[in-house]
Write a structure and sequence with these properties.
The complex is a heterodimer. Chain A is mostly helical. Chain A has 14 helices and two strands. Chain A starts with a helix and ends with a helix. The two termini of chain B are 37 Å apart. The chains are: A mainly alpha, B alpha/beta. The A-B interface holds A 158, 162-164, 166-167, 169-170, 172-174, 176-177, 179-185, 285-286, 289, 293, 296 and B 50, 52, 71-73, 76-77, 81-82, 84, 88, 90-94, 97, 100-102, 104-106, 109, 117-121, 143, 145, 147, 161, 165.
Chain lengths: 303, 255
């Protein structure tokens, strides 16, 4: 019993980490998106359709979900890239609500073995059974989630030490100045939005297959707000930051029964306090820089 | 052919004529001073050249090519770099990263190698960054966050970052603002070194010790119009210029 519960909590932390990283990437380029749940949703539906209705293998379904989310992100990015600040936030929120309302009426079903399978508007999309049909246990699926999360996290950590990562941070700090370094800021921002869409998409596809059931109301704005808050709590200096935020929220607040009833109060309070005390989170750029310096010092002392 | 040529360049902000029918030509290899009282349109002129604000009328030509209204990143790619009146750095990045990204935007622009272009840059670019740090006297601060530098160091980093893009024309918007006399002399020396290396510089400045000493020619703006142009010595004697600076002589106006 405890094991099952633990696996469920860890799976949840893993899946939500993807959307947290997605929102984090946009925070790094200086934009607050209230709409990352849309890419999570698009991929959940897209990958579910691929495996449950078209009979694709799971891995192809996951890949397809991430690609569809990336494509959706490109569609959002092109018209919104010129928007800054509040205008970008409102546009992403509007897009996400649009996606959610489309799924409320989106019906696409086929008959498989005498049963109707597929999204049915507000009744949701049942029986995305691919992992159970192929006998993947919850524990094995947990390993798949964390394997993919590791790959994405390592990608983020490489990105942070790279030129592209530095450019993303530059845009977040001063877009005009970045432009004056000879860099096409709008093109880089489109790239960031698409990358964020793909990352959220991986989480959405994983979610759909573990839950076996998705419905539009899961993907409401609160999911996107949480995704944003994780980066703001854990810190915007490194991709580890948002993961800390997820661990604090889901690992502590939601999963420990004694305090879960007060989750939103504690969580909201935590965000409010941190925004005042540490506006860029626990692991902000200065903290990360300090830690790196200490690390270099230690390595030098070893040699 | 002048390296930079402004023809009837005009910028109106609503009813305000920030820059009005400005003609200016800067020859290759010279240090050209652009001075004038506050609000005379100097910074706006720089912003117009760089594509930061849109041009109302007129033309900007660099090396004979029309760059009027080009996006800032295209102006830089053409070979024009600038610094800002208020220091603008990427405070969250290290000193080294500040220069590295700027450096690479030119060095690896045409690089076919995916990893080089997007991730790690070329070895040549890294060496060039180290050279720039040396020239700016910041070699010891390479791993410091730019936000943590002292004021004078930030100014030097800003200049180094502009140079890292390998420009042929450098626009300096009040580089000596807030500097003490010693720092101004150091800057003077640095500008002369750059000139000897073949750089063309447009210097927007209030600090007359610097402008009168280092420039080859000066243009004076007032209310967006050019009221005088010539050698530094002649500008100091010019009556219209003295009038513009509230009746005082140029030398005492900003002492």
């Amino acid at each position: 019993m405890d094991d099952i519960y633990l696996i469920a909590v860890l799976s949840n932390i893993g899946m939500i980490s993807f959307i947290a990283l997605s929102a984090y990437l946009l925070l790094v380029v200086g934009e607050i998106s209230f709409g990352q749940q849309a890419f999570f949703a698009v991929s959940a539906y897209g990958s579910g359709i691929a495996t449950a209705m078209w009979g694709w293998p799971i891995w192809l379904g996951l890949l397809w979900g991430a690609l569809v989310a990336g494509a959706a992100a490109l569609v959002v990015a092109i018209p919104t890239v010129r928007l800054r600040g509040l205008y970008f936030s409102v546009a992403t929120l509007a897009f996400a609500e649009m996606v959610r309302l489309i799924f409320e009426i989106f019906t696409y079903q086929v008959e498989i073995e005498g049963e109707l399978v597929g999204p049915d508007g507000s009744d949701g999309f049942r029986d995305i059974r691919a992992i159970y049909d192929s006998n993947v246990s919850d524990f094995e699926y947990l390993l798949i989630i964390y394997g993919l999360l590791s790959v994405v996290l390592i990608g983020f950590l490489i990105l942070e030490r790279s030129r592209l990562g530095a450019i993303f941070r530059m845009i977040g700090e001063d877009p005009l100045l970045t432009e004056m370094q000879g860099l096409n800021v709008n093109a880089y921002k489109i790239l960031a939005v698409v990358m964020a869409g793909v990352v959220a998409g991986i989480g959405g596809a994983l979610y759909a297959h573990l839950a076996t059931y998705v419905e539009p109301k899961i993907f409401n704005v609160m999911l996107g707000v949480h995704a944003l808050a994780y980066g703001l709590i854990g810190g915007l200096g490194t991709a580890v930051g948002p993961l800390i935020g997820v661990a604090i929220d889901i690992g502590l607040l939601e999963s420990i029964r004694a305090i879960s009833g007060y989750r939103m109060i504690v969580f909201g309070g935590l965000v409010a306090v941190l925004l005042i005390v540490r506006p860029r989170g626990l692991l902000d750029e200065a903290a990360v820089h300090w830690l790196r310096g200490r690390w270099r010092g230690l390595v030098r002392a070893e040699n | 052919m002048p390296i930079l040529e402004l023809t009837s360049l005009t910028k109106h902000f609503g009813g305000v004529h920030a820059v009005d029918e400005l003609d200016l030509s800067v020859e290759e290899g010279e240090i050209f001073g652009l001075i004038g009282p506050n609000g005379s349109g100097k910074s706006t002129t720089v912003n117009l050249i760089c594509g930061v604000v849109s041009v109302t009328a007129g033309r900007v030509a660099f090396e004979g090519r029309d760059i009027t209204g080009a996006a800032p990143h295209r102006v830089l790619a053409a070979g024009v770099a600038r610094t800002f009146q208020n220091i603008r750095l990427f405070g969250h990045l290290t000193v080294w990263q500040n220069l590295w990204v700027a450096q690479n935007s030119v060095e690896d622009r045409r690089s076919e190698n995916f990893a080089k272009r997007w991730f790690f840059g070329s070895g040549a670019a890294r060496d060039a960054v180290d050279e720039q740090l040396e020239f700016a006297g910041l070699a010891g601060k390479r791993n410091e966050l730019a936000a943590n530098l002292a004021f004078g160091e930030q100014r030097r980093l800003e200049l180094a970052r502009a140079l890292a893009t390998k420009p042929r024309l450098l626009l300096l918007d009040e580089p000596a603002a807030g500097m003490n006399l010693e720092e101004v002399h150091a800057l003077d020396g640095r500008l002369r070194t750059l000139q000897q290396a073949g750089m063309t510089i447009v210097l927007v400045e209030h600090v007359m010790e610097l402008v009168m000493g280092v420039t080859d020619r000066i243009a004076v703006l007032n209310f967006g119009r050019k009221i005088a142009e010539g050698l530094p010595a002649a500008i100091q004697e010019d009556e219209a210029v003295q009038q513009a600076y509230l009746g005082g002589s140029v030398e005492t106006a900003h002492a």
